[in-house]
């Protein structure tokens, strides 16, 4: 009986991990006008500093 409960617990943990992965794959990254060179996922539409490391955000080059 104890092993059945442990198996159910591991199954629940495994399934909850799969649902988080699926959500992350469906998200789209936003292209900010200003971004951090060390953390490209951090940015803003106006000048500022990175919320992770404090570096100045740099302006993206315009597409040619």
From TrEMBL:
The keyword Endoplasmic reticulum does not apply. Residues 1-22 form the signal peptide. It comes from the Bacteria. The keyword Nucleotidyltransferase does not apply. Residues 33-59 form the Heavy metal binding domain. Keywords: Signal. It holds the Pfam family HMBD. This is Heavy metal binding domain-containing protein. It comes from Mucilaginibacter panaciglaebae. The lineage of its organism: Bacteria, Pseudomonadati, Bacteroidota, Sphingobacteriia, Sphingobacteriales.
């Amino acid at each position: 009986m104890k092993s059945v409960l442990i198996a159910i617990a591991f199954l629940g943990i495994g399934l909850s991990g799969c649902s988080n992965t699926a959500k992350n794959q469906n998200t789209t990254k936003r292209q900010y006008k200003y971004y951090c060179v060390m953390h490209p996922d951090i940015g803003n539409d106006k000048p500022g500093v990175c919320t992770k490391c404090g570096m100045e955000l740099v302006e993206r080059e315009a597409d040619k």
